[in-house]
Each structure stands twice: as C-alpha cells, then as structure tokens.
C-alpha cells in the first residue's frame, strides 16, 4: 500500500466511480446518451387523441439565456416539467413565466427546427420542489444537490390557455405514484417508455424509447432507469409500458431529470455512445428520474380527481426513498432488498443491487458476498465482476489478496470487453495501488488511444509517472490535462500537487490559486496550498488553509491527516491526536495514518497506550507485511536490525519506499528515546530523498529544524488570493 500521501490525487476518482467524471448535480444539461443494446428510439407525431398530443415543449428565457425541455399536460390547464428547465441557474419565483408549445404546426421558438408547433401559451410556476443548485461553488451544496434533487427537480405550471380541455383536445396524462420502498420489496423493475424532445432530433416529432425499465433508487436520490435520453428530454415523462386499465393511456411514473457523463469524449461522441446490453458499467450509467411519489401529495389538489392517486395519498406521505437528512438509510434499503431476495433467491441482479448498497455503506465483505452469490447464479455476470473488483479494492485486505483478486476480476472482464476504457481505468488504478506502476501506465496508454481527450487519464498517468520519479513525462501529462480542461479545477490541483512534490512552490501556489478562482470552495486546492505554505514554514497560514479545506469537506481523511501533522509540528498534541483519530475512523484501511497516530501518542506521553496500539496493528493481517514490520518494532517484537533487513526486500520501488519509512520511523523512535544524534541522522536521510509529497517528510523536516536549534517559523502573512 502507498505511504501517507498528502492528499489523494484526482486521478483516483476515475476508478472508484466507473464513470470518470463525477456528477455533482442534476441542474446542468450534462450528457451521455448511454443507451444499452441498440438505439431503438422511434419518432411519434404529436397527434390529438393520442397520449403523445399531451407532450410538448417548455421554453424559459431570461434575456441572457434560454432553457428548453420537455413538458406534459397533467390536467386541462396544468403542465409538469423539471425545475431546472424553467429556472435555469436561478431560484424559481411565482412571478416567473415560461412558454408551453403543443401540437403540430409552424410556430415555436426561434432556433433551427423549432417552429414545428400548433399552439402556445404562457405558463406560470404554481408549486415546485426544493431544488438545490448543483453547479454552486459550495461543494457541500453540490453534495446536497446529489442527495436532494432526484426528489425535488420538478415543477407544476399553470397555463393561461387550457390545451387539455375538450375544446382544444390535447388531453392530459394521469400519474401513477408508487413508493420507493414498496418497489424495492417487490423486486420488480417495471417496463417503461420515455418520451421527449432530445437534441439529436428536430422538433417535428417526439422521440420515444419504447422499451426500457425503471429500477427504483440505486443509492443516488430519485429513481434510476435505463431509457435512452439526451439533453432536451429533461422534464419529459417516463411512463409505464402497458396501460393500467383498458382504454386508459399509460400513466406517468416519473419525470426525466439527469443523465450520466463519460470522461474524455466530446459532446457529439458522447451522444453517439451505445453500450452493450450487458455492459459492466450498467448500474453506474443509469439516468435519473423524479418519481411521481415524491411530489404527488403537493400537486394532487390542482389536478382532476383520480381514484388511483387518492388511494395512494391516503396511505403515503411524500416519498424520499432511503434518504434521511444528510445521509442514506442503508439498513432500510438492505432490508428491503433482503425481502425481495427472499422471494426470488435466484435473481442475480437483486444480489448485485443489494451488494451495491452494502458497498456504499462501506460494508465490503457483505458486498463481496452478494456479488459472489450473483456470479454463482449467473457465471461471468459483468456487473457483478466489476462491482466485486471495486469492493475488493475498497477492502484491500492483504491477507485475503484483495488487490490481486480485484485485478483478476478486471482481467476477466477485459477478456469480454477488450476495448472498454472504463475497465482499463479501473484496472490501472488498482495496479497503481498494488505499486505496479509500469503496468498501470500501460493501461493508461491504451485508454488514451481510445479517449485522447481524457484529462482525468492524463492526470492519473502523471501520478504513476511521478511515483516512478519520471518527472519529465509526469509534467507533460499534467500540462496536457490542463490544456484539455482549462476550466476544470482538478486539472490545476493535480498539477499543483506535482509541482509541490518537485519543489516548484511558486508554480504549485499559482495552480492552487487558479483552482480556487475557478472553484472558491475546493477543499483539495486549499489543502494543497496548505502543504506548500507548511513547507515554507508559514505554519499559521497553512493552518488557515487546512481549516478552510475542512470547512468545505469535513470528512476528508487526507486533509485531516495533513492538519494533524501540522498540529503535531506546532506542538498542539491533543489537536493532532484528535485529527489523526478522525482520519483513521474515516479511512481505517490506510495503514500509515494509523502509525502516525500511534507515534503521536508516544510523543505526547501516552507510551503504554501507543505500544498496545502498535501490537494490535502488528497482529492485524489485513495490512501488508511492511507497515506491520514497523509496528512490530515499536511493539518491541523485533529490533532495528530486523527492520533494516526487511526494508531491503522487494523490487526497486519497494526498497526505495521502505528506506524512506525505515529512516522516518526509526528516527521517530530515536527521538522518543532521547537519542538525538541517531534521530538527526535518520531524519536527514528522509529529507535527502526529496519525497515532499508525504506527510512524514514535513514532520521529519520540522523535527530536524528543532534538533538543529531552529524550529520552523510561524508566519501571519495571509495566504494569496484567499476569498472572503
């Protein structure tokens, strides 16, 4: 396992999520047309007397920008659509207006192919969801949008002219509420069809995906489905495939609100992407819909009486599925899937879906058990193999060879899908975790042949080059990532971390400051800048940046570890212990943060407690042999000579890493014992490596300064470009 990196470089995000670009909200018209199988969409005319006639276009113009999406009549005089279609980036107000177009004719908005409608009228927001801006500069608000907007991205509009009445004849669609938990317990995935006005077709006709399905809540808020949708579909209905009663139009199950994104493809390439029907990334590329159950109680009073709706409301409150405040009710979701599995124990997909909930709840063993059960039912099941590989990687149990097993699962998948960039990214990341950097680079090379515009892959390959101290190639990759994504903060943060590693403080600060101009609430930019300031001896202002980073991401284990080290350097031992302990609780699989916690306990006068901690760690076979060797030394089980012998084992990379750790931890032991001469020799060897990217380097530098009689100096100079 890697030593205590200052922070997890942005490339690490690529493999954990399958989808390389992480979605931060539903408001934007972000795109991937991830259809599965073949593109079987068909065109449908907006003809009166059919349910297609009730579906039209919603346009909202502010004078500065225009938003357009799909909307559908739900009464003679009311239309439903997505909140973000009508509000754009602003908060919705009752005084706002939009225009609703229906039918087939020659009027419409003034864009190419837009004048295809028969009638239009103004529409006024009547009631809407508590939508959160997913493009906010505040990361906590972005996270909130992910947890919130799948339930809240909806609005009911009142029309000035009633197109759904008998006089105009366009009719309206009825709604079908169904609670999330009941859907999960049933184990069903209702057949559906999705209708809208996607941007890859003109407005002359509607576009329908006639055969897709709804899966309910997969962990993100709202419900997920596999209907093929593009920008323009937003606000359109997802309907049950079969009418619920003879002579009745299909009822609406939910409103289309968001799509997934693939890294490294431009918009046209993304829109043309059709994945295999059994693609392993299936569950990571599902689109989102707001279920009717999440808003029906608020809109029913404005709609015509409906016995189906009335019966539902009598027994249900507003539905937010498994969301509970700031977190998810994992236990409830897992229990509900347990009910479904008990009824149909040989359903491999149900095991995968429950396993994904276990994985999200950091229960890797339970997740692995479910994915393995799915593979027994359905050998070679791609989604199960991919999910299991990720859970193996998350658990990273040395005794159970988890990284090797994760790579083996991905090897098996790549035999089935040899040109899958997502699978190669996953494997490359895990190879890097297993310190097989040359192999990881080979995978990144292949990915870049498939996705030459993947900034994330350039960052990740740059990370691997930097680990091998191939700084020239690393620098080229980081520069290329910035060139591809000049408005993406993560590109500058990755390059800033690298520049900090090689001692280019001015370049690093420039990158972190630029990232903060793009995203003033970026915790990674603040923490990256904090390390540079720390290494410049500006400890007070470094602490300000660590505090700001944790203000925006209070559960970031790597930032907490960094602040802990700074508190240790400044002599704030209780604060250091608290930060290290929080970091360990958030990332218990990272071994070196634990070792640093135990060292700090020993330095803070808690020697017996620290010795017991080292002994417990040394006996924990989940960790690999090397950090346990260091723990065995501090527990008194082996001597320094044994540490020296073991450190000299492994390949060249491992021996170099072991030497760094050997000198740091033996130097700490010498300090604790009061052997300053040996401590100075050992810690000087740490500094001589130039490995500034590790927490231990900064502690060693501070200790050396104190041993030499010149402590790292504090500074009250405010950090550059700090936002108010």
N-to-C span: 39 Å
Tally the beta strands: 17
Beta-strand fraction estimate: 5-15%
Mean pLDDT: 88
Form type: elongated
Helix count from the secondary structure assignment? 29
> Which blocks of ≥5 consecutive residues have pLDDT under 50?
1-34, 709-724
Radius of gyration: 28 Å
Question: Considering DSSP H and I runs of 4 or more, what fraction of the residues is helical?
Answer: 40-55%
Instruction: Let me know the largest β-sheet.
Output: 6 strands, antiparallel, barrel
Structure class: alpha+beta
Widest sheet, order of strands: 9-10-11-15-13-12
Structure description:
By secondary structure, this protein is α+β, with helices and mostly antiparallel strands. 48% of the residues lie in helices and 13% in strands. It has 29 helices and 17 strands. Helix 9 packs antiparallel against helix 10 (364-377). It is elongated, with a radius of gyration of 28 Å. The relative contact order is 0.09. Mean pLDDT is 88; it is low at 1-34 and 709-724.
Give a brief outline of the structure.
With 724 residues, this protein is of the alpha+beta class. Helices cover 48% and strands 13% of the residues.
Descriptors:
alpha+beta, six-stranded antiparallel barrel, 29 helices, 724 residues, disordered N terminus
Task: Give a topology summary.
Layout: H1 12-17, E1 35-36, E2 42-44, E3 55-61, E4 66-75, E5 78-81, H2 83-87, E6 98-107, E7 117-128, H3 139-152, E8 155-159, H4 180-186, E9 191-196, E10 206-216, E11 223-225, E12 237-240, E13 252-258, H5 267-271, E14 274-275, E15 287-291, H6 296-299, H7 307-315, E16 323-324, E17 327-328, H8 330-343, H9 348-360, H10 364-377, H11 382-395, H12 402-416, H13 421-433, H14 437-450, H15 455-467, H16 471-484, H17 489-501, H18 505-518, H19 523-535, H20 539-552, H21 557-569, H22 573-586, H23 591-603, H24 607-618, H25 625-634, H26 640-647, H27 652-673, H28 676-688, H29 695-707
Parallel strand pairs: 1-14
Antiparallel strand pairs: 2-10, 3-4, 3-6, 4-5, 5-8, 6-7, 7-8, 9-10, 9-12, 10-11, 11-15, 12-13, 13-15, 16-17
């Amino acid at each position: 396992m890697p030593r205590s990196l200052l922070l997890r470089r942005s490339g690490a995000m690529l493999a954990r999520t399958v989808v390389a670009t992480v979605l931060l909200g539903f408001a934007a018209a972000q795109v991937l047309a991830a259809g599965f199988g073949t593109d079987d969409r068909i065109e449908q005319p907006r003809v009166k007397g059919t349910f297609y006639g009730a579906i039209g276009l919603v346009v909202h113009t502010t004078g500065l920008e225009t938003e357009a999406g799909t909307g559908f009549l739900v009464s003679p005089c009311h239309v439903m659509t997505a909140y973000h279609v009508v509000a754009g980036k602003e908060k919705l107000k009752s005084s706002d207006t939009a225009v609703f177009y229906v039918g087939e004719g020659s009027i419409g908005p003034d864009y190419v192919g837009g004048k295809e409608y028969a009638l239009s009228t103004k529409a006024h927001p009547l009631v809407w969801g508590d939508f959160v801006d997913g493009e906010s500069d505040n990361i906590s608000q972005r996270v909130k949008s992910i947890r919130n907007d799948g339930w809240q991205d909806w609005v009911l509009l009142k029309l000035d002219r009633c197109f759904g009445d008998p006089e105009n004849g366009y009719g309206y669609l009825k709604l079908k509420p169904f609670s999330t938990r009941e859907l999960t317990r049933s184990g069903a995935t209702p057949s559906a069809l999705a209708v809208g006005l996607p941007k890859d077709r003109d407005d002359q006709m509607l576009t329908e995906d006639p055969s897709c399905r709804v899966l309910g809540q997969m962990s993100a808020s709202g419900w997920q489905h596999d209907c093929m949708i593009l920008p323009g579909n937003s606000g359109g209905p997802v309907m049950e495939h079969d009418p619920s009663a003879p002579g009745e139009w299909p009822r609406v199950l939910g409103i289309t609100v968001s799509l997934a994104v693939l890294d490294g493809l431009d918009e046209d390439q993304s829109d043309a992407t059709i994945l295999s029907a059994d693609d392993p990334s299936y569950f990571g590329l599902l689109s989102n819909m707001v279920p009717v159950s999440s808003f029906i109680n608020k809109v029913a009073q404005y709609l015509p009486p409906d016995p189906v709706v009335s019966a539902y409301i009598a027994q249900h409150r507003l539905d937010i599925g498994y969301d509970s405040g700031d977190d998810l009710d994992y236990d409830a979701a897992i229990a509900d899937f347990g009910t479904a599995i008990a009824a149909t124990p040989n359903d491999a997909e149900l095991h995968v879906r429950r396993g994904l909930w276990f994985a999200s709840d950091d229960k890797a063993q339970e997740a692995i058990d479910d994915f393995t059960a799915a593979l027994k039912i359905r050998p070679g099941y791609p989604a199960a193999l991919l999910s299991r590989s990720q859970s193996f990687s998350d658990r990273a149990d040395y005794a159970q060879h988890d990284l090797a097993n994760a790579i083996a699962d991905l090897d098996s998948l790549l035999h089935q899908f040899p040109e899958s960039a997502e699978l190669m990214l996953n494997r490359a990341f895990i190879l890097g975790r297993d310190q097989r950097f040359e192999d990881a680079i080979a995978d990144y090379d292949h990915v870049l042949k498939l996705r030459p515009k993947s900034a994330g892959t350039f960052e990740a390959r740059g990370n691997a080059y930097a680990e091998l101290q191939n700084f020239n190639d690393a620098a080229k990759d980081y520069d290329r990532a910035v060139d591809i994504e000049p408005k993406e903060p993560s590109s500058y943060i990755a390059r800033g971390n690298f520049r900090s590693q090689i001692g280019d403080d001015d370049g690093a600060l420039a990158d972190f400051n630029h990232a903060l101009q793009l995203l003033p609430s970026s915790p990674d930019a603040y923490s990256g800048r904090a390390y540079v300031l720390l290494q410049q001896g500006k400890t007070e202002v470094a602490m300000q940046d660590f505090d700001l980073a944790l203000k925006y991401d209070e559960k970031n284990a790597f930032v907490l570890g960094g602040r802990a080290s700074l508190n240790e350097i400044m002599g704030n031992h209780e604060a250091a212990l608290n930060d290290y302990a929080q970091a360990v609780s958030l990332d218990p699989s990272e071994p070196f943060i634990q070792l640093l916690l135990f060292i700090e306990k020993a330095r803070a006068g808690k020697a017996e407690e620290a010795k017991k901690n080292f002994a417990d760690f040394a006996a924990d076979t989940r960790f690999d042999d090397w950090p346990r060797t260091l723990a065995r030394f501090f527990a008194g089980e082996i001597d320094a000579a044994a540490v020296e012998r073991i450190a000299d084992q492994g390949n060249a990379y491992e021996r170099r890493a072991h030497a760094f750790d050997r000198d740091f931890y033996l130097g700490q032991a010498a300090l604790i014992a009061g052997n300053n001469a040996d401590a100075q020799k050992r810690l000087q060897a740490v500094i001589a490596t130039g490995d500034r990217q590790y927490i231990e380097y900064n502690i060693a530098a501070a200790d050396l300064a104190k041993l030499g009689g010149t402590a790292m100096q504090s500074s009250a100079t405010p950090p550059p470009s700090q936002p108010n």
